[in-house]
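Let us practice reading a record.
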Amino acid sequence: MNRLRCANVCVLVLFALVATAAAGNFLVYFGTYTNALSRGIYVARLDADTGKLFTPELAVATPSPCFLAVSPNGKFLYAANSIPSFAGEKGGAVSAFAIDRASGKLNLLNQTASGGTGPCHVSVDATGKVLLVADYGSGSVKSIPLNADGGFGDGGSVFQLHGGSVNASRQSGPHAHFITTDPSNHFVLACDLGTDKVMLYKLADGKLTPNDPPFATVPPGSGARHLAFSRDGRFVHIINEMACTITTFAWDADSGKLELVETVSALPPDVAVQNTFTAAEILTSGNFVYATVRGHDSVSVFAVDEKSGRLTLVQNISAGGKVPRGLGIDPTGRWLITANQKSDNAVEFGIDAATGKLSSTGQELKIGSPVDVKFVK
């Protein structure tokens, strides 16, 4: 009788584990600043059908993995480690991990220098063969070849940016804040908060070379931070940290040229920008743009005119916490998660496919100092 009871219990437990695995359609990774409440990168599971989030666990202990990137094949994850020194030298690091799909745990492959100080953003090119890094402190950008096993290879290129802009306290020098390829994977765009420029490069054989034209500019004192391409790749939307605005450019995929369309506030029309407000993240999903503003602690939703690229505000909603530094939108486009750094929580919203508007699902994850959100199928 005892053996039969034990067998039945084991079968029930197995069914429960299978059901949980089936429900957790996507892995959700959270980059953080490590402190008393955070030890590294955390992982949760998302049931994409219902929006249910499962309790997060530590995926790997690693120092201040503030921003993450996932390889196109979903096998590897990369992190920008915002640390003061690496391997005995001044400067930050980047880490490469293999993803254990069953457990969500991350296994370290190798690490290398980020190319400067204060690495704050990483991305992977469409081939999965190049990692791109932006170093905020030094104002530099770097390309790093990736091996077939996901680890860092040799070679690549580093570019030190130069100049400043009109805000003496924030823009006395360059501050690279974001770097990514265009949809064709032929060009690389890098936001420089310190110079109010979007730097433009060509990408070939894992190396960057300056484009002609070499950059485009946002309004002086804006502080270009992050960017997102429209769903058809014809427009680029840049969120400006200091001005709390979004500048839209038309993108010429043949020449790598940006042509100014407009600049609009990232806040509702009845809200004036305050010194405590700083815009942070921008993402696109479908025909909508999502942007966060810290201090105001909100997410703004914009509809995009597909012909002109111009934005129309359709909603501004509380981020569900303090200092929403990052955002993540799941691969189905149905769920959005805010990473609220100063309230140590991540909050989920449902996305209305027709209007783009957000509605809280009531789900909240407790994570120390979350900064970035990435999904893996």
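A brief commentary: Residues 42 and 60 are 7 Å apart (CA to CA).
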